[in-house]
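By convention, each integer encodes one residue's backbone shape. The lines below illustrate.
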Amino acid sequence: MTDIIRVKGHAYVLATSPRVAMRTLTLKDGDTFAVYDRYGDTGSVGSGEQGIYHRGTRMLMHHEFHLGHQRPLLLSSTVHEHNAFVAVDLTNPDIPLAGERIIPRGTIHVFRSQYLWRGAMYCRTRVYNYGDIELTTDITYLYESDFADVFEVRGVVRRRRGRAWSEVEDGTAVLSYEGLDGILRRTTIAFSERPAEMTPDHARFSPRLRPGAAFDLFHVCAFTADPHRPSPSPLSFQDAREKQIERLGGRRITTVMTANEQFNHWLDRSTADLRMLVTNTPDGPYPYAGVPWFSTVFGRDGIITALEYLWVDPEMAKGVLCTLAANQATTERPDADAEPGKILHEWREGEMANLGEVPYGCYYGSADSTPLFLMLSHATWRRTGDRALAEFLWPHMTAALEWIDRWGDVDGDGFVEYARKRPEGLVNQGWKDSEDSVMHADGTLAEGPIALAEVQGYVYAGKHGVAQMARALGHDDLAHRLEAEAETLRQRFEAAFWLDDLGTYALALDGAKRPCRVESSNPGHLLYCGIVRPERARLVADSLLGPDMFSGWGVRTLSEGECRYNPMSYHNGSVWPHDNALIAAGLARYGMAERAQKVLEGMFDAALAVDLNRLPELFCGFPRQPGQGPTLYPVACIPQAWAAGSAFLLLQAVLGLELVADPPTILFNRPALPGFLDKVEIRGLCVGASSVDVILNRHPHSVGINVLRRHGEVEIRVDM
């Protein structure tokens, strides 16, 4: 594919080579992430996004190990099960010596271990001689930085760049870049042994290895990118490793163990990915959206991930709410699509965002983050009973309500619409934010202001939830008003969005209030929000799980019969795990546990078929074929926070699990288990100060629940 001058649309990523063509190894810590090839190198072969990034900038484009002036042979490589480090085993190819002698392949073993910690990459290289003669071999590390902004890596071409230079100072390589934003970005590379040769682009070592002897080399690549928040000085390899292990151990949260080891591995990988993606912001822990393209704060993604994971660990939700509250818009700023009370869409720190070359430095262009903020606020309060948190959030919630009624409803018809203010901003401002994701049945793109179906569902659920909190906090008049507004919205919504001939709801209303008469996955979110009339819920389920919508792996974003259907598109026929998790939860809410099971089964089968059992951001919507896995999307983020969180919401949906803090109650509403799960054991399930351990066993026509341990006063209810 040839380069383009300007990438169309926020969601578009320039694909010069597919990520799926070569397996990548991914690590993340805080504001630093790395995308390696299978050798643990970057920039040698494969996809163009490889590198080590820090605060929105690629600080190392090329970092490559050579043995004897060439790449060694790969034996194996993996990411540790807790995403702690990358481990790579290598060996030498056949190496000619003087005369007719050679060093046979497999004589030298190389083990490489790399991890990230506090703005630095720590590397260990161990070279062992298994031969019977003494060897002298060259070990070389090549390195180079382009200091590319992440949007440059995604395909945006800049007209001007800053100044870059490299130098060697006392056995240390320093790669520097002064951006047009005035920030000095620097990569410093220091080795534990003095190199035989060192230049600004490589370091070479020539150890002599006796038979049975090893040579250990450590080096650190430290990154600085903000004079106001300098990275701490690097530690020794072992000291940093111990601190990293301590952090990864973390605090104890709810744990789940089943009789299916493959399902356990999926949950464990999802847990590890969420822990890796969570970054400690000044206002609390926040799950960054995904690597490599979205490794930063996203409002919608963080909220949905927190909702998916809320029953397991509400601390994530508290961090998301406090971070978004701290960054809630307070003034009208058209250049950022911001209005008072609106919740953040995304927050970037790279050079292009700092300069305004892209609008996403602190950007508010989403119609759904604000009502979703209300939904998460209520769900967290109901789950935890944390009154102090509720009172802290209350002014932010009332500001969000004011935005919904004043700024969100552009034309006063009772629906929340969007229309971008900044020309370079997002055309579409729901979770399907591609430029072509909202259309009419003939394929014509809808013109705004656009009222998305699911956004009205979020507003309905948000107002109902805030009404409950208002009553608990002594604001009875507001509670009555919000309940009345939610009911009025529900009635208007049914009248305007229901498509009787299709048996589902319109994707959206365009600026002329014409419904977008296409079958999409969006109505599944309406089930999750509870806005759907009960008699219509099964019709919606029939649409979502019919052959045109359900691929066999999951529900497609758009029906196979629609004009703009393309199974390889980003939003018009692909399958998204988080979308399916919300759909499954909605199906279970309306008493259709057997259909929620079908979605869980498809997602689990997909997880078994992909690398590391790690569900990607999305995959293609081609129909499932016997004996084949899902078709992967070429530039999907892996891992992605709400894809990792989907496993937990899917399980919660089939269990019918609900946790209420006041009074402490654990409810299993019509629990069901699919055929591949005979037993599910949940330990440390906490409600307030109480906790329980329970075990669920599948029977032919029911699920049995036994309490293994109970600490504190908590009621356990089972509604069949």
The first strand starts at residue 25 and ends at 29. The radius of gyration is 27 Å.
